[in-house]
Records
---
Amino acid sequence: MTVAAARRRVRIRVTGTVQGVGFRPYVHRLAAELGLTGFVLNDERGVVVEAEGEPGAVERLLARLPAEAPPLAAVERVVAEPRPATGERGFAIVESEAGGERLAIVAPDSATCADCLRELFDPGDRRYRYPFVNCTNCGPRFTIVRGVPYDRPLTTMAGFAMCAACRAEYDDPADRRFHAQPNACPACGPRAVLTDAKGRRLAAGDQVAAAAALLREGTIVAVKGLGGWHLACLAADERAVAELRARKRREEKPFALMAAGLEAARALVELSPADEALLLGRERPIVIAPRRADAPVAHAVAPRSAELGVMLPHAPLHHLLLHDVGAPIVLTSGNVSDEPIAYADDDARERLGPIADAFLGHDRPIHMRTDDSVVRATGEGPLLLRRSRGYVPAAVPLPLEAPPLLACGAELKNAFCVAKGRRAWVSHHLGDLTNWETLRSFREGVAHFERLFAVEPEVVAHDLHPDYLPTAYALEREGVELVAVQHHHAHLAACLAEHGEEGPAVGAIYDGTGLGSDGTAWGGELLAGDLEGFERAGHLLPVRLPGGDRAAREPWRMACAWLCAAGADVSRVPPALAGDVPAERWRAVARLAAGGPTAPPTTSAGRLFDAVAALCGVRAVTSYEGQAAIELEACAAPGPARPYPIAVEPGPPVVIDPRETIRCVARDAAAGRPAAAVSARFHAALAAATAEAVAAVAAARGIGTAVLSGGVFCNRRLVEQTARALRAAGLRVLVPRALPPNDGGIAYGQAAVAAARTRGRG
Ligand SMILES: [Zn+2]
Ligand SMILES: [Zn+2]
């Protein structure tokens, strides 16, 4: 038997996130170890390997290829086909092939890896204290990419020519920095600089150390990160944090914190092993967890919150800064109130000039603004509240084939989505599109994603609401098929699709408001359906929304509307609101709540939370979306509570009727019962009624799966209690995992619905 006869050769196609993540050197090492010959190359669809050698060794390669892939790779498929053996010698990394359909994927930005971290703090290393150290296993990606293929000239590193030492690493297949596009060192790469708002340098020598010294003295410093500018100050410094809050126009949202490492984070919040894994993950999101009673944190960081949002350093600059400061810092978005985060340097200096005393910047431009991602751990697993830096643009699989499409998303908390085949690329969190700057980011972002992922939309999905800006954008697109998707159906579809399912299921979809199929404002919906369609099988009892959109900012209006609906006495202001609401305004709203064109009916669950929060004195007027509901949850007494009475009318449609609940809330609040007890009993009532109603709808239709989604289900207590009761009723429960339960998941849901409705059509 000749040697050649015993050899086997295969051609392997690897798809997924396999470019710019050290995949080819990895294959090269593996082949060398297994004694295989052949080659590996990148093409526009991913990575191609041809390998030849002992049949057993080829088998081992196929088994190990996906299993041991580099940390930033996400292998979706490995397909091998036999080839005749050629007797080829050696194993080569060959130049990229051009042509064919473009499907290669840009990776998300990733936290500094352990190897780079060691170099960062090693006085003997040439990158000692270099704030931009990175390699193929870590560093900036999405935020610096201007176009594809992912290659240095098409990144914001194009302006930095590599020195001989960096170039040698970049060209060496055995090196950790082989083809690491952002590769740099102190001799050739970006530099940090500490300036005032006018761009004048503030210090000589080590710029990060100088910024840390300012922070320790109580100064507010703007810091340029991966996806935008942050505002920083000492977390324990009452005066500095209060000053930051005042300069950010008295914003009331909790500030995020950054701690140097796990030990420091444990001193701030109670962390489960799952929370710790999230904190340490390469996405490095902000993790919201229960605050420790003795946390060394200024009161103004998160007033009225039982939790704190904490993250660990994600870029080397942050590692250095936290090391030098020696204590946790506030690291909150660099913006004023609800404006988008600043990412361009001149814009940052202009907008943040009145807030920050100093600017720690650098000369590597940010191409794509990305906010920090936010995760909240619950008994039902982690919920992504904001999906952005670290997660985007990783593809989210679809359970069915999609034509090339664009889904425009919701108007607030906007993220859009492009899709093709079985993959959807959901954009970074953009925010409120009624802000002109954000709308511009949306338009530019859509064009960028269409280029990056080679999607030329044939279908454009949008919300039913004709006045939404994303809808207006969809209607501008020419030569496409438009698919209008009801808001709450999109929530249901998003949750089903990310779990790889098409339904049917019964969804309890609770949020602020979204336009319903009947033209009214929905928001407490029980939908029975699948990806293609749905039936409104039930809902919360409709009440009046006195003053329309104003009701969302003034929860006391909803308190009045719900008291009216419950037949309670609204002739005078309830005691808990007496200090907040003048009697004549209360009476005017009570008249509105009786009906009329400026008080349209709504089934909004978010507004029910507002009403209860106002009635028990938690909050009468809000300064940001969802504030009353968030504070109502935060104040609830821990542990189980006896639910208030609540009615579930069997219908059809099933109606959850909390009028008796409202009467109890009002009575207990008037009797001076603490908000903690009222809130806990209200949560228990709504969870029980929701589970009962969903189970009834499911039983009537022979459906075994329940979905909980919509912004209201960002509420840890509500999602845990409702899911528990549904399982006790024998149902399988799905909650959003890969995408936010709030409107950040809408675009992906629209994409899934559009794919289902256009299925089988050319
Ligand atoms: Zn690294
Ligand atoms: Zn260099």
Note: The longest helix spans residues 675-701.
---
Amino acid sequence: MPEEIRVRAPGGEETRAPVPVRREGGYAVFPAQALESLGWTLAREGDETTARWEGREPLVRVRSGSPLLLWAGEGVQLAHPTRRVEDHLYLPVQFLTDILPWKLPGVFSYDEAASTLTLASFGEGEGEGRGGTPVAGESERRVSVVVIDPGHGGRDPGAVGARGTREKDVALGIARALHRILSDEEDMEVYLTREDDRLIPLWRRGEEATRWKGERPGVFVSIHANALPNSRATRGFETYFLSEARTEHERRVAALENSAVEMEEAGTGPQGQDPDLSYILTELRNLDHQHWSALLAELMQEELARVHPGPNRGVKQGPFAVITNALMPSVLLEVGFITNPQEEQIMSQRSFQEDAARAAAQAIREFFRRYPPEGAGE
Ligand SMILES: [Zn+2]
């Protein structure tokens, strides 16, 4: 790791003071203040620091101690959290070496071999006329990303019905069908978090989804079957988005789905620490994803109601681990109760799985007609 990062204009002569780099908590950081010599204006309010670039609206918001930053309202995950040392905010050097060149490609580029950040002259030329359009001027065709997450897998069967139907198989059946249906859409890129019967750690699912999505608009759809062992009569479908649980039922379903974490091998999670859910929830509220997740959940219920015998149990909310770190509108479907004999039978049928997948596909298409809204950005 270099001791400093040099900063120069495209011509080659060094025009700005180098950015000092130091090691904190085992990784390389630089003082956020150094951004000021790169054309940024910083403002601090409590734990939060906002950064404007060349007089634009606040482009970047960071909090000390968080690995998430907001770039024009979109979440970006850093490799390490920011740090506050003696009341100065430090950011991982990744911000200079990767994020600036990625987010402002015409302006910043980084030469790793020379530890040099090149800073094009800015504030002139017809630039990226801002106003909400992404700075990167890529292709015209807008591609949306759909990440489909079949719940459970491998040695985690999920809930199991009286006749032996396993939640993980129902989830995979619907997910694969959904993947196949949406793969025909020209403007969608579709991913599965698992394609076969294997266990993927809950935390990794959202992380990968976030990586696949990149800067495109995207959604994350986790597919499950519900269980209520003491009530064989309970049936119907419900869709969750991430928030605090409000009812006993919501708490119970969230606890059930989150218990899969215990089946994961030690060391596969984020250093075995429990992520701070309340903190993540606050971040998500900032991201405005909750509003969109709720809409996606509405649409799912609406479409599923056309193919499902019911009842429609409505949109629900809860603290689901699997959707906490997918930084995009995310929902979790419970397509029926595997503990209800009729629903167990229905859910094991190929034809129902196809129908449910078609309904989910229609909800996703409908969602992307409204999302992202025109002029998104802040
Ligand atoms: Zn489940």
Note: Helices lie at 94-103, 167-182, 202-213, 248-258, 277-287, 289-307, 341-347, 350-370.
---
Amino acid sequence: MTTWTPDQPRFPLLDGPSPFQPLARFSAALGTDAEVWIKREDLLPLAFGGNKLRNLEFLVGDALAEGADVLVTSGRRWSNHCRLTAAAGARGGMDVHLVLTGPPLEAPGPNQLIGELLGATVHVTATAERAERESLVSNVADDLRAAGRRPYVIGVGGSGVIGGLGQVLAGLELAEQAADRSFSVSAVVLPSATGGTQAGLLVGLEMAGRDARVVGVTVAAPAAELRPAVELLVADLGSLTGRAVDPRRIELDDGERGDGYGIPTHAADDATRLLARTEGILVDPIYTAKALAGLMRGVREQSLAGTVVFWHAGGTPGLFEPLDG
Ligand SMILES: Cc1ncc(COP(=O)(O)O)c(C=O)c1O
């Protein structure tokens, strides 16, 4: 068993490991020998759960250590990271400003409403342009500074090297849970948007001496665009932890993106129904259903075999988000 305690400041948001469970009926329905297990990051404790709480333990820790008193972050209107930043800020006694990509909906979507319920101030850009979002973030931070506040700005998805430490610990946690059950995981399948979760898991599994594949099913940028960012983060996390990962271990699968970020696909809808009707577990159309569809395809085509872990990264409120397509 590898235990590792990062030196970086950490603000506790988790109560313990997320559940790791077999999906017996789902595996049987796939009609292959693969055994599918699920890592229930969606059951992490705050505000409908989700993997990004792990990043926020280190980001809020860093913010508090720097003497910040307000968190500023940004993302698409369905951003789970934004919702969870609002929750983490509430836990840490910090104000939170969220900058969400517009254009504004006629009525705010569920993630925005939950963010507001958690006490965050929400700003929505007029257009879908990324440049507009970035400039609004810097204006919000400037206004806060001018008002005597000490803002801490968190990048999209909380996926830099500090946040990524949380995902390294998730990789170590998985290795320990598998070791407790005396089996080895052959592959982990997860949704990849910024690639931060994938990078951290790879480094964590490497630290635990595990050679499980980590397959990121792309849901936003395609693999060709995402790969350099994941390579960089893997390298940075490798330097921080002293454990280098061969970049050839970064596997990205573009097979479920469909028409792009936040646009549902039939394969993802089918995957959602199968998991719901065999196991009573819900996934969301933006992230986790696409990863699950990728897992089902891999298992059926036998490119994935043995014990395959579905990384349920959370995002369940996305089921209620109005989407195109
Ligand atoms: C539910 C869910 N799954 C997966 C991801 C993708 O994680 P990453 O940005 O680390 O690739 C996100 C990112 O926001 C998410 O909210």
Note: The radius of gyration is 19 Å.
